[in-house]
């Protein structure tokens, strides 16, 4: 067998007289040891990549003009944080981007969930609107940025609209599929017990689709950030996308990488928050087994 469960892997080390407490303690030690090993390799890979980048730039194995270096990137971030940017405070520009992304994320997520569940539960409406949804979904969303800016201007609404579109279709598709994948036997049993359509949706279908919905939410915030930044890149007065555009125009490689690094940190933090929320709301799900290999 290619993979073994934790129980199978650890079973030979226990004798017949081993207590449950000793088995549990050994299992917890193995889990902690694996987490530490994963963390070690994550840190090692990060340090190795950053160190090789810095060394390659200092030794001119790569052109520092185009690739900059980690030290230059951190220096640029420090300058932006302490002295501001050419477009004002770094924190204000970051807040503008986050505001656009957050509004688009929540609006797109909520709408996507409601529309996905609604059409997933109503086959007649899904058959009517499916062709229109497929047609709109086939359009590369980033090309809508100039249209939104032309219609709504350079301010907040155009960036929110693009972030909304980026998020909506991801969440909608997962919510719709999650509803369609709901356990038919559980739905039938609920109906036999006299549950109404709303009760079936609320108590059976939505919990069944939650894993699909949360899977989409994990990636959709990143899409919201992309939508906001692309909109700012095309045309804006403030925002991280505008900083990237200015850095590109002045051939400031360190500035471009600094802005990208800032976005990565914010997105990873949002992913961490999303994971905490998911773990809190989905405690009913069984824990996945631990693969020790």
From TrEMBL:
The chain crosses the membrane at residues 37-55, 101-119, 131-154, 160-179, 212-234, 254-277. Pfam families: BPD_transp_1. Its main location: membrane. It is a multi-pass membrane protein. This is ABC transporter permease. It is found in: Cell membrane. GO terms for cellular component: plasma membrane. The lineage of its organism: Bacteria, Pseudomonadati, Pseudomonadota, Alphaproteobacteria, Hyphomicrobiales. PANTHER family: ABC TRANSPORTER PERMEASE PROTEIN HI_0355-RELATED, ALKANE SULFONATE ABC TRANSPORTER-RELATED, MEMBRANE SUBUNIT. Keywords: Cell membrane, Membrane, Transmembrane, Transmembrane helix, Transport. One of its GO terms (biological process) is transmembrane transport. The keyword Ligase does not apply. Residues 94-274 form the ABC transmembrane type-1 domain. Belongs to the binding-protein-dependent transport system permease family.
């Amino acid at each position: 067998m290619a993979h073994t469960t934790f129980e199978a892997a650890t079973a030979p080390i226990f004798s017949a007289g081993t207590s449950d407490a000793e088995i549990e303690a050994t299992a917890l030690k193995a889990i902690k040891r694996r987490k530490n090993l994963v963390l070690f390799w994550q840190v090692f890979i990060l340090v190795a990549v950053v160190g090789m980048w810095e060394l390659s730039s200092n030794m001119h194995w790569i052109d520092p003009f185009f690739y900059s270096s980690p030290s230059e990137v951190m220096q640029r971030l420090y300058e932006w944080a302490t002295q501001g940017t050419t477009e004002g405070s770094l924190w204000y520009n970051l807040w503008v981007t986050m505001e656009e992304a957050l509004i688009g994320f929540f609006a797109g997520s909520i709408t996507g969930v409601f529309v996905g569940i609604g059409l997933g539960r109503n086959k007649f409406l899904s058959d009517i609107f499916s062709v229109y949804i497929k047609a709109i979904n086939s359009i590369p969303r980033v090309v809508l940025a100039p249209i939104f800016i032309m219609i709504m201007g350079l301010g907040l609404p155009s960036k929110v609209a693009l972030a909304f579109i980026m998020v909506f279709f991801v969440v909608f598709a997962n919510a719709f599929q999650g509803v369609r994948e709901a356990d038919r036997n559980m739905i039938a049993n609920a109906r036999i017990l006299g549950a109404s359509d709303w009760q079936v949706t609320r108590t059976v279908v939505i919990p069944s689709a939650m894993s699909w919905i949360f899977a989409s939410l994990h990636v959709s915030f990143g899409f919201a950030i992309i939508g906001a930044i692309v909109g700012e890149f095309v045309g804006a007065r403030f925002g991280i996308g505008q900083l990237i555009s200015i850095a590109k125009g002045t051939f400031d490689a360190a500035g471009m990488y600094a802005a990208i690094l800032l976005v990565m940190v914010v997105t990873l933090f949002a992913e961490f928050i999303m994971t905490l929320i998911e773990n809190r709301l989905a405690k009913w799900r069984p824990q996945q087994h631990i693969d020790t290999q």
